[in-house]
Automatic annotation (TrEMBL):
[4Fe-4S] cluster binds at residues 244, 390, 441, 444. In the C-terminal section; belongs to the purine/pyrimidine phosphoribosyltransferase family. The keyword Iron-sulfur applies. GO terms for molecular function: 4 iron, 4 sulfur cluster binding; amidophosphoribosyltransferase activity; magnesium ion binding. It comes from Pedosphaera parvula (strain Ellin514). Binds 1 [4Fe-4S] cluster per subunit. Keywords: 4Fe-4S, Glutamine amidotransferase, Glycosyltransferase, Iron, Iron-sulfur, Magnesium, Metal-binding, Purine biosynthesis, Transferase. The lineage of its organism: Bacteria, Pseudomonadati, Verrucomicrobiota, Pedosphaerae, Pedosphaerales. The gene is purF. Its cofactor is [4Fe-4S] cluster; Mg(2+). GO terms for biological process: 'de novo' IMP biosynthetic process; purine nucleobase biosynthetic process. Pathway: Purine metabolism; IMP biosynthesis via de novo pathway; N(1)-(5-phospho-D-ribosyl)glycinamide from 5-phospho-alpha-D-ribose 1-diphosphate: step 1/2. The active site is at 9 (nucleophile). Residues 9-227 form the Glutamine amidotransferase type-2 domain. This is Amidophosphoribosyltransferase. NCBIfam families: purF.
Length: 486
C-alpha cells in the first residue's frame, strides 16, 4: 500500500543581488513541491563560500540566524527528493568542492543514467567521493584538467554525463545554468533588480517579483558573470527532445509556465479532452485535490456537469508521494482529504484525479464517496495508464508495483470499487499541451525510453557499491521507528 512515486528536485540560482540568500530562500519556498526531504543554500561572497543545509522543509531548515550568515551576492539552492543516493544529510544538495578552479557548488534536478559507470571510471583514477548521490560526479568531472580552457571544461563535463539534468552551478565568479540535450527537466531564466535568476519553475520568479526572460534551451549552458549572460551550445548535433510530459500532468505547479504553456491551462485542457473522450452521465464532477483540480474543472466545463470541491484538503499535509516512508505516505492519504458527505449523497459522481500509480489514493476516495451514499462513482484519470518505471528523476515504483502494468482496466475498476474507470489517451494528453509529440518523453506510458539505461541500477546502487549503507541504514531504521509509532 505504498503511495505515489517519489519525485525530482527544485533548483534555484541568482547572480549579483545584495539579498541573494533571502531571494534564494523564497525561491526554494516556491519550489518546495519538487522535494521535501532536504534543502540547502550556498552563497559566494567575493569567492568565499557559505553554505547551510538541513533535512526537512525549507521553512524548518532556515530559521533564526541561518540566512543572515549566508552573505554574498551570488547563490544557488536546492530542494531534494532523492533518486540516487539515500535521503541523508550527507547527500543533501547543493554539493560543494574545492579544486584547481577554486570553489564550486552544484544543485541538480534529474537523474544521471550513467552515474555508476562514470563513478567507476573516476574512482579507478583515484578520485574520492563524499556522498552517494549521482550528482557528485558532475563536481568531479568539472575538476578534471581539460585542454581548451573554461568553456571546454564545461562542455566536456556535460558530454560525459547521460540522462536527465538541469543544473545550477556556482563558482567563485559565476552562476552557470545547464540543461541536458533532451531537456527532460525544466529550467528558466529570469531577472530581478538587474540580477539574473535561474529556477526550475517560473512560479519561483513570481514570488520574488522577477521577470521571466526565457527557458534555458535543451543542450544549452548559460554562463552568468559580471559581463552579463552568454550562451554555449554544448551539443551541436540535434538531439531528440524529451521534455517530461508528467511535469504538465502532475508535477509542476499550475502557476508555472513551461515551454510557453501555462501548466494550469494545459491541465484544464486535459480535463476537457477527457470529457470529449469519455462522456458519462452524472450529477457532479469533483476533483481529488490538489493535482486533480484543474482537470476536474476542465471536465466540468466541457461536459456542463456542475463542479463541486467535495473533498477538503488538510493543508498541513504535503504531497503524499514525497514522503520517503511507505507508512507515512499511506497515513497521509487518509489524513489529507475529508469528504463533505451531504454534497454527494444520492448523486452520480465523476471523480477526477491526475493519475493512478498504485491505486492507493483512488481506492480510498471511491470508498469515501460510496460510504457517504454516492449512487454511482465514475473515476476519470487525466493521463494514460502508467506502465513503466521512470529513470530520469521520478522514482516511480518498479513495474511490479504499477497498478496498470499488472492489471486490466476491468480488474482495476473492480479493485477501486468504481462504477466505471477511464483514462485520457496518449494522443489526448499530448493534444492538450498544444505541442508536438516529438517534444516529449512519455516512457512511463509508452515504454519508449529516449536515453538508454541499465535496468540493474537503482536508487541505492552507490550505497551498495561502497559497502557501507550509511544513509540507507538510517532510512530503514526510520521506517522501523515509524512502524512502531503508528
Ligand atoms: O495511485 P497512487 O499510488 O495513490 O498515486 C496517485 C496519487 O498521488 C498523487 O497525489 P499526491 O498526494 O502525491 O499529490 P497532490 O497533493 O499534488 O495531489 C496523485 O495526484 C494521485 O492522487
Ligand atoms: N529528484 C532529483 O532531481 C534528484 C537529484 C539527484 N539525482 C539526487 O538524488 O539528489
Ligand atoms: S518516464 Fe515519465 S515521468 Fe519519467 S521523464 Fe519520462 S514522462 Fe517523465
Amino acid at each position: 500500500m505504498q503511495h505515489y512515486p517519489k519525485h525530482y528536485c527544485g533548483v534555484f540560482g541568482i547572480f549579483g543581488h545584495p539579498n541573494a540568500a533571502q531571494l534564494t530562500y523564497y525561491g526554494l519556498y516556491a519550489l518546495q513541491h519538487r522535494g521535501q526531504e532536504s534543502a540547502g543554500i550556498v552563497t559566494s561572497d567575493n569567492g568565499h563560500f557559505n553554505e547551510y543545509k538541513g533535512m526537512g522543509l525549507v521553512s524548518q531548515i532556515f530559521k533564526g540566524e541561518a540566512l543572515s550568515e549566508l552573505t554574498g551576492n551570488m547563490a544557488i539552492g536546492h530542494t531534494r527528493y532523492s533518486t540516487t543516493g539515500s535521503s541523508h544529510i550527507r547527500n543533501a544538495q547543493p554539493l560543494t568542492g574545492n579544486c584547481r578552479l577554486g570553489r564550486i557548488a552544484i544543485a541538480h534536478n534529474g537523474n544521471l543514467t550513467n552515474a555508476a559507470q562514470v563513478r567507476d571510471e573516476l574512482e579507478a583514477q583515484g578520485l574520492m567521493f563524499q556522498t552517494t548521490v549521482d550528482s557528485e560526479i558532475v563536481l568531479n568531472l568539472l575538476a578534471q584538467p581539460t585542454l581548451g580552457g573554461h568553456d571546454n571544461n564545461l562542455i566536456e563535463t556535460v558530454r560525459r554525463i547521460e540522462g536527465a539534468y538541469s543544473l545550477c552551478i556556482l563558482t567563485e565568479r559565476e552562476l552557470i545554468g545547464v540543461r541536458d540535450p533532451h531537456g527532460f527537466r525544466p529550467l528558466s531564466i529570469g531577472k530581478v533588480d538587474g540580477a539574473y535568476v535561474l529556477a526550475s519553475e517560473t512560479c519561483a520568479f513570481d514570488l520574488i517579483h522577477a521577470e521571466f526572460i526565457r527557458d534555458v534551451e535543451p543542450g544549452e549552458i548559460v554562463v552568468i558573470d559580471k559581463n552579463g549572460l552568454r550562451s554555449i551550445k554544448a551539443f551541436p548535433e540535434h538531439q531528440r527532445r524529451a521534455f517530461c510530459i508528467f511535469e504538465y500532468v502532475y508535477f509542476a505547479r499550475p502557476d508555472s509556465t513551461i515551454a510557453d504553456r501555462n501548466v494550469y491551462k494545459v491541465r484544464v485542457e486535459m480535463g476537457r479532452e477527457l470529457a470529449r473522450e469519455h462522456p458519462v452521465k452524472a450529477d457532479l464532477v469533483i476533483p481529488v485535490p490538489d493535482s486533480g483540480n484543474c482537470a476536474a474543472l476542465g471536465y466540468s466545463l466541457e461536459s456542463g456537469i456542475p463542479f463541486e470541491m467535495a473533498f477538503v484538503r488538510n493543508h498541513y499535509v504535503g504531497r503524499s508521494f514525497l514522503q520517503p516512508s511507505q507508512l507515512i505516505r499511506d497515513f497521509d492519504v487518509r489524513v489529507k482529504l475529508n469528504l463533505i458527505g451531504n454534497l454527494v449523497k444520492g448523486k452520480r459522481v465523476i471523480v477526477v484525479d491526475d493519475s493512478i500509480v498504485r491505486g492507493t489514493t483512488s481506492k480510498s476516495r471511491v470508498n469515501n464517496l460510496k460510504e457517504a451514499g454516492a449512487k454511482e462513482v465514475h473515476v476519470m484519470v487525466s493521463c494514460p495508464p502508467h506502465m513503466n518505471p521512470c529513470v530520469y528523476g521520478i522514482d516511480f515504483p518498479d513495474r511490479s508495483k504499477l497498478m496498470a502494468a499488472n492489471h486490466s482496466l476491468e480488474e482495476i475498476r473492480q479493485y477501486l470499487n468504481a462504477d466505471s474507470l477511464h483514462y485520457l489517451s496518449q494522443d489526448g494528453m499530448v493534444k492538450a499541451t498544444g505541442l508536438p509529440k516529438s517534444n516529449f518523453c512519455m516512457a512511463c506510458y509508452d515504454g519508449n525510453y529516449p536515453v538508454k539505461y541499465d535496468s540493474m541500477v537503482d536508487k541505492h546502487i552507490m550505497e551498495r557499491r561502497v559497502g557501507k549503507p550509511h544513509g540507507l541504514g538510517e532510512e530503514l531504521k526510520k521506517e522501523e521507528l515509524q512502524k512502531q509509532l503508528l
